[in-house]
Amino acid sequence: MEKQQWSSKYGFILAAAGSAIGLGAIWKFPYVAGSNGGGAFFLIFILFTLLVGLPLLIGEFVIGRSTQKNAVDSYKTIAPGTAWHRLGNLGMITAFLLLSFYSVVGGWIVIYIWKVVTGELAGLDGEAYGAILNQTIADPFLVIIGHLFFMLFVIIVVAKGVQAGIEKASVIMMPALFILFLVIVVRSVTLDGAMEGIEFLLIPDFSQLTSDGVLFAMGQSFFALSLGISVMVTYSSYLSKEENLIQSASAIVIMNFIVALLAGLAIFPAVFSFGLSPDEGPALIFAVLPTVFSQMPFGMGFLLIFLILFLFAALTSAFSMLEIIVAAQTRGDVNKRKKSAWIIGLAIFIVGIPSALSYGIWSDFTIFGQIFFDAVDFLVSNILLPVGALLIAIFIPLRMKKEVLYAEFSAGNTAGRRLFAAWLLFIRIVVPVAIVVVFLHALGIFDWLIDVIKG
């Protein structure tokens, strides 16, 4: 049976970075940072990524590369005869649900690209852009077509395989993403009044940072690296035994920092330059930025560039979500890949339809007071992802032999026992504690305890 494998370390890093650099880095990070002090949030985010995200990323790499198997079979191989393989199943379920509504947002990007190309977004004022956003996401035909178009592209790429599909697409899209980002950043930072936005992002103002902001930064630190759903277990299983896992993980984290920085430099200087607010929430990309770009010379051209890079980031993340499920279902049989990718991908599209209709004809349908899109988002982001990340952090020191961990950790590098011991300490204590804190905060348990204490 032919073994799926990356053709090069470069291809693996770009594909893994593409998985990590998605809507969270370009969409969520700017508006969460904008609401939590800008530079202070960014600094805390970097700190937590190094202390929590990086150790867990290396941990997922160790699991996948040590077994050279998909997420489910990796846990079966390491802990045979136990229920730990359910952790791989949990990752598949999480990826399935995550991609079902992630694809809906990807569809919105596709729709907005079309609107820019056809001139529909040119020459409008701020209120008009907000109205267009509301009309767009409420239009059942448009959102389902966008959702379908996005998923079809993801299916086609994943069906082609690891090298010919995911790696080839990532090697093209990721460098293009950085180039397009630089074009937007140069334009943004050269606007009149841009310095205020640059200072907002780069000069920490801790007086604007709340305890909630610190916890959001901690959560963003491991969600931004695609951790908790065993995607990186699957991706690293295609990696040769000679590759340096620490170096690869560090490169991915650094690329993630750079993209977060570029996203901030692309958005905040432009927003401040035109006197708009950086804390507009999810509408920042689809309503505020069009307002900004519409007031620039060649603004629609720059908006189109931004939307294309946004689409590339969304796609490279979506590839990994579908791949973890396809890999587990095909178990390395390349002859089954194409059929599995289409069946699973179309099933995800169907399950995502209620999310696509949540802001329109199904807006009255709620689950625990939330529309379907928000309910699935809450389930994935606040429950399944942190639970998955916590279980992975527990699994590594509990079920993997120390000599296997060290062999994988030190392969291809000169890492000594002290660095290995430090990493293992973080995996055993720091990472689980951080995840539990984020989990309790996301569920509102901290607020409940404070209310109880206050009486």
UniProtKB/TrEMBL annotation:
<dbReference type="GO" id="GO:0016020">
    <property type="term" value="C:membrane"/>
</dbReference>
<protein>
    <recommendedName>
        <fullName>Transporter</fullName>
    </recommendedName>
</protein>
<feature type="transmembrane region" description="Helical">
    <location>
        <begin position="340"/>
        <end position="362"/>
    </location>
</feature>
<feature type="transmembrane region" description="Helical">
    <location>
        <begin position="171"/>
        <end position="194"/>
    </location>
</feature>
<dbReference type="GO" id="GO:0015293">
    <property type="term" value="F:symporter activity"/>
</dbReference>
<feature type="transmembrane region" description="Helical">
    <location>
        <begin position="137"/>
        <end position="159"/>
    </location>
</feature>
<comment type="similarity">
    <text>Belongs to the sodium:neurotransmitter symporter (SNF) (TC 2.A.22) family.</text>
</comment>
<feature type="transmembrane region" description="Helical">
    <location>
        <begin position="39"/>
        <end position="59"/>
    </location>
</feature>
<feature type="transmembrane region" description="Helical">
    <location>
        <begin position="296"/>
        <end position="328"/>
    </location>
</feature>
<dbReference type="InterPro" id="IPR047218">
    <property type="entry name" value="YocR/YhdH-like"/>
</dbReference>
<feature type="transmembrane region" description="Helical">
    <location>
        <begin position="95"/>
        <end position="117"/>
    </location>
</feature>
<feature type="transmembrane region" description="Helical">
    <location>
        <begin position="12"/>
        <end position="33"/>
    </location>
</feature>
<dbReference type="InterPro" id="IPR000175">
    <property type="entry name" value="Na/ntran_symport"/>
</dbReference>
<dbReference type="Pfam" id="PF00209">
    <property type="entry name" value="SNF"/>
</dbReference>
<keyword id="KW-0812">Transmembrane</keyword>
<keyword id="KW-0813">Transport</keyword>
<feature type="transmembrane region" description="Helical">
    <location>
        <begin position="214"/>
        <end position="239"/>
    </location>
</feature>
<keyword id="KW-1133">Transmembrane helix</keyword>
<feature type="transmembrane region" description="Helical">
    <location>
        <begin position="419"/>
        <end position="446"/>
    </location>
</feature>
<feature type="transmembrane region" description="Helical">
    <location>
        <begin position="251"/>
        <end position="276"/>
    </location>
</feature>
<keyword id="KW-0472">Membrane</keyword>
<feature type="transmembrane region" description="Helical">
    <location>
        <begin position="378"/>
        <end position="398"/>
    </location>
</feature>
<keyword id="KW-0769">Symport</keyword>
<dbReference type="InterPro" id="IPR037272">
    <property type="entry name" value="SNS_sf"/>
</dbReference>
